[in-house]
Amino acid sequence: MSEAQTEHQHEDETTCVDADDQVAQPLRVSKEADTSTTAITKERPFYILPAIVGSQFAGTALWFAGNAVLPELVEQWDLPESSLSFMTSSVQFGFIVGTLVFALFNVADWFPPTRVFGVCALFGAFVNAMIPFWESLAGLIVLRFCTGAALAGIYPVGMKVAADWFPQGALGLALGWLVGALAVGSAVPFLLSQIPQSWQSLLWETSALAATGGIVVGCFVPNGPYRKASSKLDPYVVWSLFRTNQPFRSAAFGYFGHMWELYAFSTWCPIVWKAYLEDRDVGWDASVVTFCVVAIGGVGCVIGGYISERQGSARVAFMSLAMSGAVCLLSPLLYISPPVVNLISYLIWGLVVVADSPQFSSLVAQTCPPEYKGTALTIVNCIGFAVTIGSIQLLGAPISEQYLFLLLAPGPGFGLWSMRSHVFPLDRLKDAGNAST
Fold this sequence. Notes:
This protein is mainly α. It has a single domain (43-436), classed as MFS general substrate transporter like domains (Growth Hormone, Chain: A, Up-down Bundle). The protein contains 21 helices and no strands.
C-alpha cells in the first residue's frame, strides 16, 4: 500500500464527525479499523508508549513541586499563608498563557511535537531548579508561572505525540496510560517530601526527572504514522472548532466541567485532610494521604482506558464524572465519618475524578480535523485550566473545611449536561435536528 493510500485510509478511520450535520458517529471501531490497528501495532516500536508515558510522568513532576515545599518556604522566607493560592494559580495561569499561544500559532501541528515536548521539558526543569536562588514571593510566582508555561508543551503536546502513534480504537487506552502518568507524576513531589532531605534537593530531583523525560521524547521518539502536519498557520481554526463542530463543543464543555473539580480538589485535598486529622486527633500524615488520593488517579485512568475499548470514551467519561460528582456532594458527611471510611471514600474519589480526563481528550482528538489535533487539544486544555483558577481561588473562601468541596459540585453537573448527546441517542438526535435547522 502506498504512503498516500495509507494516509487516506487513516483519515477515513479517525474521522468521527459527519461533515454535513456535524453529528458525532458512534465511537466504535469497525473491522477495518481493527485490522489497521493491528497493522500499525506491528509497525510501532515496542518502546514508544513506555517512552511517552515515562516522559509524561517525569515532566509533570514539576506541577506540584512548589506545593510540596511550600511549608518550608513559608517558614524560611516568611511568606503569607495565602501563598498556596497564589503559587498554584500562577502555575495554572502560566499553563493557560502557554497553551493559548500554542493554540493560536498551531505550534503542536506546525512543528514536530516531540521536539516541542523536549524543549519545554528542559526549560521547565531549568526554571524549577532556580527557585532556591530567588528568595521572595514575587520571584516564586514568576518562576512558577514559567513552569506552567513549560508544562503547556508537556501535557497537551504529549497527548498529541500519542495521538500521532495510535489510531481511534486504541487512543483512549493510550491516553489513559498517559494521563495516569500525569496523575502519578504530579503526586511524586508529595512522596519525595517524606524523604529526609532539604527542600532544595526535592526541587532539583523533580527538575532532573523532567529533564530526563524531555531528552527521551525529544531525541528517541520519532513522529508517529498518524501525524498530519498543518499546511498553513490558521489562528481562526480555534473559533471555527467551537462554532461549527457540535460534537467537539460538547466534549470540550464536558472537559471544562471536569476541570472545575479536578485541580481544586488536588490543591485543597492536603488542607482539608490536615484540618480533618487535627479535629480527629489522628496521627496520619496529610501529605501521605494526599499522595495516595492523587496517585490512585493514575490507576483510574488506566482502568478507564481499558473499559473505553469496549464501551467507548464517551460512556467512560460520563460515568466517571457522575461518580466524582456524587462523592463531591457527599463530602460534608465524609468529614464527620471515621478516618478509615473517609480515606476509602477519598481513594474512590481520587480514582474517578481524573479517570475521565484522558477520555475527554480522546473525544476532542476524534472530533476535530486530524491536521489540527494539536491545536484542539491545547485550546481545550487552555480554557479548562483557566476554569481551574476560578475554582482554586473560590475554595479559599472563609468557610469550614467540612463544606469546602461542595463548591466544586456545579462542575460535574455542567459537564454531565454537556456530554448528554455523546451518551444518550435521543439527545444526539435532538442536537442533530437543532443543527440542521
